[in-house]
Amino acid sequence: MNLMFWFGTITFIGTYILIASEKINKTAAALLGASVMLLFILPGPEHSPIPKSVAKTTTQIETVSTTSTVAATDAITTPELAEQHNLYSKLDAYSRYVNFDVIFTLAGMMILVNILSGTGLFQYVAIKSAKIAKGSPIRTLILLVISTAVLSAFLDNVTTILLIAPVTLVVTAELGVPVMPFLMAETMASNIGGTATLIGDPPNLIIGSAANLSFMDFMINMFPVVTVIMILYCIALVLYYGKRMKVTVEQRARVMEINEKAAITDPVNMKRGGIVMILTIIGFLLHGMLEIQPSVVAMSGAALGLVICKVDLDHMLEKVEWNTLFFFLGLFILVSGAEEVGLMLEFDKILHFMADWNPLVIILIIMWVSGVAAMFMNNVSYTAAVVAIISAFIVATPIFAESIEMTRLLWWGLALSVCLGGNGALTGAAANLVTVGIASKAGVHISYGTFMRYGIPVTIGSLLIASIDIIVRYFFIAG
Fold first, then answer.
1. Sequence spans of domains, the chain
2. Is the pLDDT at 154 greater than 60, yes or no?
3. Which residue intervals of 342-358 are DSSP H helices?
4. pTM of the predicted model, to two decimals?
């Protein structure tokens, strides 16, 4: 291990510590670490071997290393790989190391959501949920939780919380019940619901891109278990809060008097934007079959929405969460630097200790370790780092390399664990931090410890159900 290895390792781990500590803005920390990697670690295009994530991983290309994502090609010995290296070397620095499919998928969906959020549609859904519950606090809680989970499956979690939480403050104030249980339950639901689809939670986008999994793949494999988790979660909420929340007839009446139609500020754009969103979701469902990248679907939907909806383009672009996009950009470069110095190979050696174990045991260990790590590292940061390690482990482990079913099962286990693990602690997911910020502005303090008291039971229960799902599927495959 040379000086460059230790310099890259310190940069990588130090950046993650800065991100987790929140001493400085997480995006600033990620970009700082990325800049160090680009300046001192990552080689120029003419000297850089093509990474395994870019190279074809077919059996015909034997120059791809089976033990490291770093040494993808030590020698260019095949015409196909030589051509890829030639194309790769012409890319600019950021294009070589950043997964722009993830970046543009997020950006496109953010633009679409911003168009719809300006119409009042989401506020309408929240108020309507409370009125359907007829002012009953527990029924209102359950309907808001379900609405949050469904929206989070097709929007990013942060946006969903930003849309639902302000309305929740109004509803709980009218009912005269504590807002904290509502906000915490909605946060948990956003992370659970986001697990169901490719675009629902950012870790899924990273995993989907690395493993070449489509929107429909996620729907088929994740939606059923997420539905079970949500049903059991709602039952738990009813059992715990059912007799703890009581309101007067007058308080119920005030909620019923709220005019949900008044929340719709732009009905024309709501219809147009809604049609575009439906077409975009259909595009996601079909993108695997049509061999179209998710980013193309998302950006096409965003472009169509901007054209047919009369909105201020500059204002729409200002509302894009650039902070999140640049955070992802920094993480991708940071992980590439760690790959370059061989840090991922060292992590990979730990996994190879389990290479001869039963594959089910391997998957469950990775799931639970990842779930705990995601709590404290932030599930996006952890996923960006771990997918390279898992990819190398799959290629080097016969039981996974020779079985697409086992490989997919490992990816599904990882996706479930990092998304559900985000509920465990305040730092686990971006939506958690947004919730705490909104609560603080409303005069409600949610500490790190308080969040964990809510989140850890939900996380453990969710991971147990996810583990059962993986076990059942394993025996179905093995049988």
1. 101-318
2. yes
3. 343-352
4. 0.74
